[in-house]
Write a structure and sequence with these properties.
This protein is an alpha+beta fold and 82 residues long. The chain has two helices and three strands, in the order ββαβα. Strands 1-2-3 form a three-stranded mixed sheet, with helices on one face.
Length: 82
Amino acid sequence: MRAAAVLAVPDARLGEVPVAVVEPRPGRTPRRADLLDHASGELARYEIPVRVLFVDVLPRTASGKVDLSAARRLAVPEEGTE
């Protein structure tokens, strides 16, 4: 993985749930199951992402940090699409 962000996104039933937005390394294709298996060994059950979204490039701020607001907009499904 080149970079990733796990963000809280709205959920009708639970209020918010974690969603991972992942920027893989060039030429690599990580498997969702592998990432979630690793997370389950490191995180509490409620912290494990309910969805993993792979993107070519994570949005970044001018200083090069992941732009969490922009990443959250990627992670939140548009109304009626999910």
